[in-house]
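Ticket opened by: R.M.
Priority: normal
Category: complex prediction / small molecule

The reporter submitted a protein together with alpha-L-arabinofuranose and asked that the result be attached to this ticket for the collaborator who will pick it up next week. Submitted input follows.
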Amino acid sequence: MFKKTVVTAIAVAVAFGATACGGSDGDGGGSASGGGDGTITMGFSQVGAESGWRTANTASIQESAEAAGIELQFSDAQGEQENQISAIRSFIQQRVDVIAFSPVVETGWDSVLLEAQRAGIPVILTDRAVDSEDESLYETFLGSDFVEEGKKAGEWAVENWGSQPTFVAELEGTTGAAPAIDRQEGFAEAIEGTDNIEVVASQSGDFTRAGGREVMEALLNSNPEINAVYAHNDDMALGAIEAIEAAGKTPGTDIQIISVDAVRDGMQALADGKINFIVECNPLLGEQLMELAEAVVAGDEVERRVVTEETTFTQEQAIEALPSREY
Ligand code: AHR
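Result attached by the on-call engineer:
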């Protein structure tokens, strides 16, 4: 009845067996396939629509659900954790077969995840992790290694900025979100002990273009020595470019920029020399998510952690990649 997909694409080993779906030690006992006709119903709670990355991620999930024949109940949390918690509660009430979500922030999920577990509904984390001591509250986490992304950004900074005094403005993602916490940690680790690179200001631009512009405007006024930017995503880097140009400076030259994501607009700015280096964060998680959903609903065991494969881009590489860039 179910496609027992062995998810091998990126290090997912699925061992067939009698393992129950997540949380089946509770009292609810979720339905094996909500529709009765074998159709899987997935409740998905998305962070919002804050960035180009997020738009591509939403499209990937919606298209992949349709292609896999999975009925998707999609909910947009508009950046609010309480909206995600309400959406998850509503999925539990509807007795969907599987819940997937990309947590706005890392903490504060245990009680709602416990409710899902007690109802016998497996949960898949996608894109972002939760900070919970109880790993039995979810089946698997599919997404990038954000610390590694921050390290790649920091290593490039050390190599390219380390020989002259560099005063960095860090544009952080949403406060409390896994990619903001981890990208900051990875970057700090990579530049540690480098005399010439100093993060002189660090502030949240909430992963949005408007946020990046606003924060950059303020930082250029308060810290005129800034000659480099590390933005936790392309949208904030693009906002920062607007602020830098409005201040009469040349992005990419007077103020060099490292960013994360590699969405098309960011890649274009890199190709144009306004951004200097981008670490990729791949939003096309839909297909793998549907494969994992099919596996957990079927009661198969899946890898606890599925890491997305990613690369980095210099200007030359961006020029080459742009014509076939999918997002
Ligand atoms: O969680 C992934 C991050 O969230 C992306 O890097 C960013 O653009 C998005 O908003």
